[in-house]
Amino acid sequence: MLAALRRIDLCAAVDPGVDSRLTSADPFSCDVATTPNPVKITVVTSSPASRRAMSARTVADAKAYVTREPGLNCRVVLPVSFEIGVSVDALGTQPSSALCDPALRVATVLATALADPVQDEASWDACGAVRAAVAEREHEQVVPVAMDFCHFPDGSSQLRLRYETAPEYAERGAIGDTTVWIDEGEFAGERGCFVHWSLGSSRTSYASPDAELLASVSADTCPRAKELAETMVPVLAKPPPDDVTPQRPLLYGPDEPDLPGG
C-alpha cells in the first residue's frame, strides 16, 4: 500500500477535476483552495476504532467514512488498508453540513482518480526512511505522524520531509559532501535543534517555485540532532526500495471488508 502512495502526487490526482488553486507543502498532501473554506488532502492513520465511530458511505464506487464535527471541520476518509487512509478535510467554522459539501466533492474527484492513478517516481516516506536507518529490533518503536513526519525510536526526535526553501539564516555545516543548516532555538515553547538539508528539487509543479524537498531532523539538543542527521543523510541520498509491487486497486470497493475480521 505504501509503495503505491509513494508514487502518487495527490494534487495531480485531483487536477483538473477541481476548479480551485492547488498547492503542495510536502510529497504526500495537497491543499485545495475551495471557497469559502479550504480543503486539505493528506495520508493519515485511520484505525478500525476511528472508522467505527464514523459514518460509512460510498464515494465514486469506493468505500469512504465521513465524520462531522460541528463548528470545526468535516473529514472524509478513503481507506487504503486496515490502518491507513487518504483524508479529505474541509476546514472552517461554518456548520458541518456546509463544510461536508466541498469535502465530498473533492473526495469524489480523488476517489475517481485513485481508481487508476498516474504513478510517478517513488519518494521516501518519513518512517520508511527512519526504519531503513535504524536496527530492525527498533522498527516497532518508529511511530508515524503522517507520511512526511515520523518519530524516531527515542520518542522525542523527529524526521520531516517538506517542500521549503533552505533556511539560509541558520548556521551552515556539512555531513560528508552534504550541506546542512543547523537551527537552534525555541519552537512551540520548547528548546530544540533542527538539522535541515536539501534532497533536490521538489519534483512537482504544485510546490512553491523556489522550494526544494528539505529533510529536517529535530531533537532536544544539537549534538543529538546532528547524530541522527548523520544516519539519515546517506539513507535519503538513495532512492527508496522498489521491490514491492504497488497495491492495485488502491481503494476498497463498497462491499469489501476494510476492518480486521471482515
Structure, briefly:
With 262 residues, this protein is of the alpha+beta class. It has helices at residues 2-5, 10-14, 48-52, 96-114, 126-133, 222-236; strands spanning 22-23, 29-32, 39-45, 55-59, 62-69, 73-79, 84-91, 143-146, 149-151, 158-164, 171-175, 178-187, 190-201, 212-219. Strand 4 (55-59) and strand 5 form a beta hairpin.
How would you describe what is shown here?
This protein has 262 residues and is an alpha+beta fold. The chain folds into two domains: 2-114, 3-Layer(aba) Sandwich (Protein Transport Mog1p, Chain A), CATH 3.40.1000; 126-236, no CATH class. The chain contains six helices and 14 strands. It has helices at residues 2-5, 10-14, 48-52, 96-114, 126-133, 222-236; strands at residues 22-23, 29-32, 39-45, 55-59, 62-69, 73-79, 84-91, 143-146, 149-151, 158-164, 171-175, 178-187, 190-201, 212-219. The strands form two sheets. Strands 1-2-3-7-6-5-4 form a seven-stranded antiparallel beta sheet, covered by helices on one side. The protein has a seven-stranded antiparallel beta sheet with strand order 8-9-10-14-13-12-11. A hairpin with a 2-residue loop joins β12 (178-187) and β13. α5 (126-133) packs across α6 (222-236). It is globular, with a radius of gyration of 19 Å. The two termini are 18 Å apart. The mean pLDDT is 89.
